[in-house]
Amino acid sequence: MAGNHQHIAGYVSKDGTLISGEGASVEKVSKGEYKVTFDTAFADLPAVVATLHNADKNLSVHAVITYEITTSYACIMTGNADSPPAGVPDDSSFSFIAFGDKAS
Question: Domain 2-101 carries which CATH code?
């Protein structure tokens, strides 16, 4: 397992640009929705974790979720509950990491 393990991580700007990291490309699909495509597929569904970057240090309710995780990509949605209407996607920068075993 250890020799076949991979970590793919990056920092993404709110416009969908991969600012740092490697092993993936990012596409901004629509407002607050991003598709992270892995350069090397995983053998099984990877663990994907995302966190928002908030330069304003504002602790109001912001959200990031992962959905539609496959062996070759993951979709990430960001939002801000303070922006009317609440509960809709909104652009935000974020960091992500995906880890698991590489496909053979």
Answer: 2.60.40.2080
Measure the CA–CA gap between 15 and 41, rounded to whole angstroms.
Answer: 25
Query: For 1-25, how does the pLDDT look when each residue is reduced to its tens digit (9 = 90+)?
Result: 457 899 999 999 999 999 999 999 9
Contact 93, 14 (CB under 8 A): yes
Q: Where are the domains of the chain?
A: 2-101
CA gap 40, 38 in Å, rounded: 5
Rounded Cα gap, residues 48 and 9, in angstroms: 9
Quote the pTM value. 0.89
The residues facing 66 across adjacent strands are 76
